[in-house]
Design goal:
alpha+beta; Lipocalin; eight-stranded antiparallel beta barrel; about 15% helix
């Protein structure tokens, strides 16, 4: 009887532990946000063209996001495939620093932390987002067809910021 009670207490304690989020980047590598990009320039529709995932198959279909400007600031509607899980956030985004956006509303992990703009090309067609803890990294494009030169540039930026490109999955 005591063993059963002890087992139930142990299971209850384990159920309350926070879910560990995978990291796709080396923590010791410096990460840089693109401080010169005005977040308001990022408004519009973005299609997910690559994601990080532990398995060879991304695990879910490519997602996307739309950023819009409201009288209160930025608002995002995002459904992204992140490590095999389709993850949704709809809500306001605060500019929390140069090249950094933070979801103001309740967001599921890993979208619940600051999103860093790691790179956007000069014509605002390709966008790379990531997090310092490496819990997610995505390449977004204005449409689903990402030309090779911008794909290479986006991959180079992710590598430079410590991401493990062997775990990057293209759509």
């Amino acid at each position: 009887m005591y063993r059963l009670i002890a087992l139930l207490l142990l299971l209850t304690a384990c159920a309350q532990l926070p879910v560990e989020t995978a990291s796709f980047r080396r923590a010791e590598t410096q990460i840089w946000a693109n401080a010169v990009t005005d977040p308001m320039q990022l408004t519009g529709r973005w299609t997910q063209v690559a994601t990080f995932a532990s398995l060879a198959d991304p695990g879910c279909a490519a997602g996307g996001m739309e950023l819009s400007q409201t009288t209160q600031g930025l608002y995002v509607t995002a459904q992204l495939c992140l490590n095999g899980v389709s993850t949704v956030y709809r809500g306001p985004m605060a500019v929390s620093g140069p090249g950094q956006l933070f979801p103001v509303g309740k967001a599921k992990a890993p979208l619940d932390r600051t999103w860093w703009v790691l790179w956007v090309d000069a014509d605002l067609r390709t966008l790379v987002l990531g997090t310092p803890d490496g819990s997610f990294g995505v390449i977004l494009n204005r449409d689903a067809r990402l030309p090779g030169d911008r794909r290479k540039a986006a991959r180079d930026i992710l590598r430079w910021n410590g991401y493990d490109l062997s775990l990057l999955r293209d759509y």
